[in-house]
Every structure is written in structure tokens, then in C-alpha cells.
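Proteins fold reproducibly. Look at a concrete instance:
___
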Amino acid sequence: MKKSFLRFVIINIVIFAAILVNLAFYMLGIIERESVTKLVDKRFQTLQGSIDKSNEEIEKILSQVSNDNIAKAKALAIILNQSSGDYLDNEAIEEIRIALNVDEIMITNSSGIVVAGTSPYIRQDFHDSEVEKQFLPAITDKNFCKTVNLNDKDSFSQLAATSRLDEAGIIVIEASDEYFSRA
């Protein structure tokens, strides 16, 4: 009887100890999981803050680039206005493109058709392109200025447009990510 009672007590103690060990590991797992969750949340918030700060910096840079490109387009409009049409030959426009440090220049007439520039789109009608169609108000609005960002997975470029001052028309410059690395 004594042996069976002792066996009963020892078996119960072992079972109770096993239950306590399992419960301790389970509790540690819960505490560890909660700790990891808090750490992940904290790191996520830090990462989100960094992303927000980076996005703000990108917006500032894009705004500065837009202002710079608009200023270059306006400078070209002033040059054309003072030159009485002498700068509409391709050689002179190429020299201006290099001086302004941009990739392309397009100059339209009052119908929105490219009549001069460095791009291969001479005779392109701005009415036919969804992007350039946005610049058509510049034909009649002498205070018109607008930039459009063009993104694809491999590159970035920006078109900046303003109205011609010498006659009705549009001036568009294009600066690509290659331009930004040169600037």
C-alpha cells in the first residue's frame, strides 16, 4: 500500500511538474510574441516615418525641379520674343538646348503643331497626344505654365510648358533623369 501511494504521489508530482513546465513555456511564448509584436510595430512606425520624410523630400525636389524647368521654358520664350524668329532654325535651338541643359525643346505654332525643336516630333500635333494636349491652353493664355511628370519603370522625365511671347504657340522643354544626373 505504501509503495502504491508513493508511486501515486510521484506520478502526480511528475504530471504536475510537466503541466507547470508546459504552462511556463506557453506563457513565455505569449510574452515573447507580445514583445515581438511591439518591436515589429515600433520598427514599422519608424519605417513609416522614414518613408513619409523621404516622400516629403521627393516632393520638395520635384517642386524645385519644376520651378527650374518652368524658368528655363520662360527664358526660351523671352529669347524667342527678342530674336524675331531667328532662333527657329534647328542649329540655334540645339545650342539653346545645350545652354539650358535640357534633353528636348519643342516649339509649336498657333495650331499646336510642332514647327521647330530638337525632338524628332517636328510636325507633331499636340491635339493628338494626351500628355501634350494638357499644354494647349498656352496658345491663348500668355501666363500659362505647367509641368507634367512622365514615369515608367526605368526612367523619369518632366515636360515643362509655357506660352510663346513672340506669337501664339507653346514652348515645351523635356528634362529626363539623365538631365538630373548632369545638373
Notes: The chain has a mean pLDDT of 84. The CA atoms of residues 55 and 61 lie 10 Å apart.
